[in-house]
Amino acid sequence: MTDTKAAFTLDDTFTAAEAAALVDRLRATFRTDRTRPLAWRRQQLTRLRDLLTDNRAAIADALYADLRKNRAEVDAMEIGTTITEIDDYLEHLEEWTAPQPAPVTVPGVPGSTARTQFDPLGVALVISAWNYPINLLLVPVAGALAAGNSVVIKPAEYAAHTSALLAELLPAYLDTDATTVVEGGAAETTVLLELHFDHIFYTGNGTVGRIVMTAAAKNLTPVALELGGKSPVFVDRDTDIATVAQRLAQTKFANAGQTCVAPDYVLTDPDTAAELQAALAVAIKGLFGEDPQSSDAYGRIINERHFDRLSALLGSGRTVTGGQTDRADTYVAPTVLADVRPDEPVMREEIFGPILPILTVADLDEAIAFINDRDKPLALYAFTENDTKRRLAAETSSGGLNFGLPMHHLAVPTLPFGGVGESGMGNYHGRYSIETFSHRKAVLDVPLSRNVH
Ligand code: NAD
């Protein structure tokens, strides 16, 4: 087997020849059938789980350095969610990978049996984003391993401390003949994308998503693109506004708004908008105190480029609460903007930060038209208790639809997670990850002893 590294860090040169050698090595391992047995998959999943539980403190330190994530958020949304996924695979691996018998209902093949068999694809490439740099990397990696693949693991370079830690830890825990970490950014990923993979799983923005899909097309490689977009929130009349504001603030401002499924903007009628503005100011104070910059519970913007981008969006509408910034600390206060018009800068791109615009609509019809006039979002949220639920489900398209508590649909591993249209393609979590990283092979077995017509 070719001698290549188990991890390429930023100190290494990463040439096309080295990249090709590492993929060859992983493919050679795959061809030995080492990754196929469920015992190997279980062992790898267990080791990945061990990595998380053995290194909780180091992971929390890295995430604090990258994003000032607080310990509770790291435990719940990075380590906890990833362990839940791994435990799910460990519990259901046999069931989810078992061949599925199919009834043979057509004439002409008497006595036949048929089944769908889940075949691992080969060498998968997993490219992750920086905002949840543990979860967004290791959940798909766990899915790829559970499905019996070799994996090239590309952490997100902006979360530099977490990336370096993973480059050190992953080779110490996983089978290095079947997995390799490649640290780096666009340059290193471009080198990787020249190669033939059997699956590419990409999380990030749509511009790079197109680059990934174009590269994959050369080899007819299947892709999953987990992208973003502006996820709207519809707030109905006559809802309990204090509860709505509390749940909105809690989800919108987690990780300083840098969450792919964060509520992006609110649509509601003018009376409810006025009530909601006041209630959000109270909810934000309850979560982060008078000065969120000194609160341990509040994060920071990943870098100055994103800080500058967000600062420019603060000019839209009228600031109801927040609006303060500190570039040296990459701090943007939890901010609510009212009276925002649809043509203002904050409504022209995914916000991906702690700014919540409120727009007014006359009624549900206008809200549905507003949503359908724009790209299909990764998530659609609504706070309502009536027929509005049925209408939103029937009359709009989005990656996920969630009533009552934004973002939490992605923490339910029995649901597929993914986008549609501009928010992405393909999905994962739980058994859906096994399907994504497998080929569903049709197997028909016709006995030789029977006459066929
Ligand atoms: P990012 O900058 O970390 O980029 C993502 C990955 O793309 C990185 O690993 C990076 O190295 C790689 N990359 C960057 N430029 C490249 C190039 N030219 N060629 C090849 N690879 C390249 O993350 P981002 O794009 O800023 O992430 C934010 C976006 O991702 C938002 O739109 C957000 O909604 C979306 N997102 C989606 C999900 C999801 O699960 N659907 C999760 C997180 C983030």
TrEMBL record:
Name under which the protein is recorded: Aldehyde dehydrogenase
InterPro entries in the cross-refs: Ald_DH_CS_CYS (IPR016160), Ald_DH_CS_GLU (IPR029510), Aldehyde_DH_dom (IPR015590), Aldehyde_DH_NAD(P) (IPR012394)
Species this protein is from: Streptomyces osmaniensis
Domain Aldehyde dehydrogenase intervals: 15-443
Family: Belongs to the aldehyde dehydrogenase family.
Pfam families assigned: Aldedh (PF00171)
Keywords: Oxidoreductase
Coiled-coil blocks: none
Domain of life: Bacteria
Record carries keyword Isomerase: no
Catalytic residues (UniProt): 226
